Amino acid sequence: MEKHLSIVVPIHKASKESSISPLKTWTSEIDERCSLILTLDHKEEKDSLTEWCKKEMPSEAVIVHGEFGNPGQTRNNGLKRVSCQWLAFVDSDDYFDSSSAVDSIEYFDKSYDLIICNFLSISEINGRIFKGRNPRSLADLFPELGFWRILYKSEFVKDLEFPVFRMGEDQVFFSRVLSRGPKIAFSSRVIYNYVLSPSNQLSKVESSLSELGKSLEHMRIELLQSSQYLDFRKLVLFRQEMSYAFGTQKKSLRTSISLLKRLELSPKGIGLAIKCFKNLLLWYMKRKVF
Q1: pTM given for the model
Q2: Mean pLDDT, to the nearest integer, of 52-73?
Q3: Which residue of 33, 191, 192, 265 pairs with 269 in a disulfide if CB–CB is 3.0 to 4.6 A?
């Protein structure tokens, strides 16, 4: 059967509880129309990581090796092995619905460059499951911009790279994709289950915040290099800047207003910002009462 989707999964640590590993769970039922690429980062673990993958992962998975210490370069290493028309990025501690992803690809015309789908977030703290908004426009992504909910046409992004950061590298990549002016389709299909786990969150780590600061510098520079989806890319930057401000305890209304003014949005962009913030408010209220 023809393969339609390459799934790139960076792995830096072997699961110590393989029986409940999200990666093992969804790959055991991976759609035969998909090609699985496991890109290993041996910075922390050497042979044990390879042994775990050979034991727990499907035998037909492509395994590539490297020693990087960051998810960006690890994904880049996997990108070199992509062979299908479409690709997706999946983190090793989340769940991916490969069948729904391929069904989305087959539903839409091949002229699209991106297919943005829906997702679920699952809390390991209280077991709550939250469904994202069905995306109808880029504004609907503002609460959860996750690049992992997006299917990319391989030809469109094959020469792009993730930067060498441990935090914020995904948003830089997404901004780079948008700067090329892709034709975007929106799908209500849920293809991704994002697991909220305290042990996996980097936002409180000082070194990771430093990395986020570096990614912000890259995003500011790249705003000057393309006018494609410029207002939305500015809002992505604003969201990241607010994350950085909150992470460094610089929380204030004055900080928020100052950052927003610096964006210099177009008249259309102001309308887009209003819609984004409305979606953010609805998202927050729904999560509070869910």
Answers
A1: 0.90
A2: 93
A3: 265
